[in-house]
Specification:
Blueprint lengths: L2 H8 L8 H5 L4 H9 L3 H9 L4 H8 L3 H6 L8 H9 L3 H33 L10
Length: 132
């Protein structure tokens, strides 16, 4: 697989990986080996960063879109993420609230759909044909 794909699967920023990783092809066995027994460079990248956008968003508890709205377009290190969490700016507070509302809405909709499905089974509701 391409190094870009392997980096995504490993949760690392490709640009921060060693040159031999960036320039080569990663086999499935090599990827499995990196995941099972990560070398020092991979452990350091995962621990200290810089982190890719998806990892930054997850660590901050916001969406990728929330990062974009805040103008965060550069990779962040673990230290920078911790600093933001320690003294959250207004945009981070707002985006975390937005993300919490989105999650709550997803739960509400899933529960509603589950309830509807259960009622449909109870009443023997059928398949929504034309009723002819």
């Amino acid at each position: 697989m391409k190094p870009e794909t392997a980096a995504k699967k490993l949760g690392i920023l490709l640009e921060a990986a060693p040159a031999e990783f960036r320039s080569g092809v990663v086999t499935r066995d090599e990827l499995n080996s990196l995941q099972a027994d990560p070398p020092e460079w991979l452990q350091v990248l995962r621990r200290e960063g810089p982190h890719p956008r998806t990892v930054v968003a997850a660590k901050l508890g916001v969406s990728n879109s929330g990062l974009a709205r805040a103008g965060i377009d550069e990779p962040l290190t673990t230290a920078e993420i911790k600093a933001l969490l320690a003294a959250p700016p207004a945009w981070l507070v707002q985006e975390r609230a937005t993300q919490a509302a989105v999650r709550a809405e997803k739960v509400r909709v899933a529960e509603r759909d589950k309830e509807r499905a259960a009622r449909g089974r109870e009443s023997g509701g059928g398949g929504g044909g034309a009723g002819i």
